[in-house]
Design brief:
Helices cover about 75% and strands about 0% of the residues. It has 10 helices and 2 strands.
Length: about 280
């Protein structure tokens, strides 16, 4: 059976439910804003919030990392569409790169989602924590790492790079902007165009990644009520609308503000979050 009501909802009082809905709504709004503004992908916020929330409500530690990652990927689907449309209207989606990297990104993310059934919750937290710390260091750096003044000319290097990023992003529950933006700027791609392009690539990560986690979570016991595989449908229905609505505002701010201080603040937040995930 796919839908799994594993918790008695009558155990939750009205105030607890209201606080839970408000917290998830705020998480969605913040994730959407950051997705559009910094190109980091809302999953970098959603995953730790869901992880600690599920832990607080007493769900088994063995599955909460999978639930957090899978639900984040499902939320990223509408968020990426919203952010991609907003950036596309400003001409900052590089369609040639989406065409070049898209198939490999899709394949890598699908493999990651399917492989999640063979990776422990601790393994998923380790991946999130290590990569999160590296991203935080990169975001706090005053200069972007530049390795070349152009993208790799080799087709197989591009496909390998794209599939690896898709694979890691799927296992982290992020849309890929967290990894795509620094990768593209390292090859001298303009940052605004990198942010816009990463939104389109995020959709190609979230769709197959979520599908893989749905498949790997079928039949797993003790999931939250109304879960589709490892995806919590109620959480998606609360987080996704707020994230979808806020992503265009983030994209608008990205073209109006110098985001340096915001990047520093977020790098600090991410470093603390990633460190705590590693120590969980």
């Amino acid at each position: 059976m796919i839908l799994q009501p594993a918790l008695d909802l009558s155990m939750l009082d009205g105030w607890t439910i209201a606080a839970l809905i408000s917290g998830l709504g705020f998480t969605g709004a913040l994730s959407g804003l950051l997705a559009g503004l910094l190109g980091v992908g809302g999953g970098i916020v959603i995953v730790p919030v869901l992880y600690w929330g599920l832990l607080l409500f007493g769900f088994p530690p063995a599955i909460i990392s999978h639930l957090a990652v899978a639900t984040s990927l499902a939320v990223i689907i509408p968020t990426s569409i919203s952010s991609m449309r907003a950036h596309s209207r400003r001409g900052t989606v590089d369609r040639s790169l989406v065409k070049l990297w898209g198939p490999a990104v899709f394949t890598g993310a699908l493999i990651g989602g399917i492989m999640s059934s063979f990776i422990s919750g601790g393994g998923l937290r380790a991946i999130f924590g290590v990569v999160g710390l590296l991203v935080a260091v990169n975001m706090a750096s005053p200069r972007h790492l530049v390795v070349s003044d152009h993208l790799p000319r080799s087709g197989w290097i591009n496909r390998t790079m794209a599939s690896v990023i898709g694979f890691i992003s799927s296992l982290m529950g992020i849309g890929g902007g967290t990894l795509w933006v620094p990768t593209m700027t390292a090859f001298s791609h303009p940052v605004h165009r990198a942010v816009g392009t990463s939104a389109a690539l995020g959709l190609l990560i979230a769709l197959p990644g979520a599908a893989g986690f749905i498949w790997s979570g079928v039949g797993v016991a003790d999931r939250p009520p109304f879960s589709l595989g490892f995806v919590s449908l109620p959480a998606v229905l609360i987080i996704a609308p707020a994230s979808f609505l806020m992503a265009p505002y983030g994209a608008r701010l990205a073209h109006a503000l110098n985001a340096r201080y915001l990047r520093l603040a977020f790098a600090f937040f991410l470093a603390i979050t990633a460190g705590r995930m590693l120590m969980s």
